[in-house]
Design a protein that fits this description.
α2 packs across α3 and α9 crosses α11. The chain folds into two domains: 63 residues, DNA polymerase, domain 1 (Orthogonal Bundle), CATH 1.10.150; 196 residues, Nucleotidyltransferase, domain 5 (2-Layer Sandwich), CATH 3.30.420.10. By secondary structure, it is of the alpha/beta class. 45% of the residues lie in helices and 11% in strands. The longest helix is centred in the C-terminal third of the chain and has 29 residues.
Length: 284
């Protein structure tokens, strides 16, 4: 998709990008060829020089796997265009905390998912291993991570090196006219999670951690399963949403393969979820 993209060029908005596509300039190569020939493009003389320079930088950055270049220049709602080109180096991430403030509350769980499968980092066990584990990815994918996950991670791990590019699916979903939390988005896209796990939310995640600290033997495994369901849900959502987005474009861009929602063979306590749901609902 990136090779068909012009909206990351300074001075080129959606209207100009669409005009380029409509006049037959549908890729970087076609645009550079037109710039070197006699074809007239819907651009001012000043813009032509900017376009040429920026496309040369784009070619170089993509060939060298520098996702940070596109992170810098793509609008927030259009960063999804990076996905197909950088999916091989992507990591899906979600955290659990003891509250909403990155200043006063702690991280309890960090869940990640990549091409090798899921991995979890737990406070009091291996949380300190996270910075080394996340350093080699090129694309970070979260839901509302720019406002929540990333500030927490940076506060907890000073000097943390995250991937150079970040696709926050909250902004992507908004560009598709979808809003709400991740579980709501999953339901709308018909890729929801199983059974009682649909009932767990952020507040219950805090309660699960508290139950773990009290010695409840199944609370931690339930919290881990909930966290990793969020993480693998990100992969299912971005694949479905990417294909939805390209269908809205006036040019033929290949769709990507939508795999099954990754299944997790991890235990959880459905009775504990039901009990917590009841105590939260009725204030006991």
């Amino acid at each position: 998709m990136l090779r068909h993209t012009f909206i990351h060029i300074p001075g080129v908005g959606k209207v100009t990008e669409k005009r380029l596509w409509e006049c037959g300039v549908r890729s970087w190569e076609e645009c550079l060829s037109a710039l070197g020939g006699s074809e007239k493009l819907p651009l001012s003389l000043r813009a032509l020089k900017v376009v040429e320079s920026h496309l040369e930088d784009s070619h170089r950055s993509l060939s060298q796997g520098e996702a940070g270049f596109f992170e810098e220049w793509l609008p927030s709602g259009e960063k999804w265009r990076m996905y197909s080109d950088f999916a091989g180096g992507a990591v899906f991430l979600d955290i659990e905390t003891t509250g909403l403030s990155s200043f006063w509350n702690d991280i309890t769980i960090i869940g990640v998912y990549d091409s090798q499968g899921p991995k979890v980092f737990v406070k009091g066990q291996n949380l300190g291993d996270f910075p080394a584990a996340v350093g080699n990815y090129t694309l970070l994918i979260t839901y509302n991570g720019k406002q929540f996950d990333v500030p927490f991670l940076k506060a907890h791990f000073p000097g943390l090196k995250l991937p150079d590019a970040h696709l926050d699916l909250r902004f992507f979903m908004s560009s598709l006219g979808l809003s709400g939390g991740l579980k709501k988005i999953e339901r709308v896209l018909s890729i929801g999670r199983e059974g009682p796990l649909r009932e767990v939310d952020g507040y219950m995640a805090v309660r699960l951690w508290q139950e773990h600290l009290k010695g409840n033997r199944t609370a931690l495994e339930t919290l881990i399963r909930y966290n990793l369901e969020d993480v693998v849900g990100l992969k299912a959502v971005v694949e479905r949403a990417y294909n939805m987005a390209i269908k809205r474009l006036p040019l033929p861009v290949p769709s990507i393969h939508e795999g099954e929602r990754p299944r997790l063979d991890l235990p959880y306590d459905s009775e504990l979820i039901t009990w917590l749901r009841r105590t939260i609902d009725y204030g006991h």
